[in-house]
Amino acid sequence: MSLERVSAFLKKYDENLEPIVLQEEAHTSEAAARLLGVETAQIAKSILFKCNDEFGLFVAAGDVRVDQKKVKQQLGAGKVKMASAEEVLEKTGFEPGAVCPYALATKLPIYLDESLSRFDTVYTAAGIPESVLAINLTKLAELTGGRIINLQK
Questions:
Q1: What residue ranges are annotated as transmembrane (predicted)?
Q2: What percent of the chain has pLDDT over 90?
Q3: Would the pTM of this model clear 0.90, i.e. be above it?
């Protein structure tokens, strides 16, 4: 169901965008990179953070640690925490490990780390643990409406 939702969303945006279905599940950036034969940094990890009742989806290169102080700057005052698995599913419509920054179940602010600009192609999750989407940062920003900012420690 999730892969079909992602595919339908992508087709409306650009007929040439199609998820890649891998031979096995890739719940981590490292696993996806190994299966694709690329650097871990090229895997765009999507992390749902919350601060009080505000949620935001933060997307960064697989080798980057997202600075929670920078997350707090975007989400407001309060303690920043990673969302629980239940919250991830409720807010994004995807299971942890398969969260893509588009075709979301609810409207969320999306923040894209400038670290993704190092590569001509990055790979986001595409709705299920064995799927990814090859895309560049410019197109990803257009597709998601996300803001490109520095999220790194």
A1: none
A2: 86
A3: yes
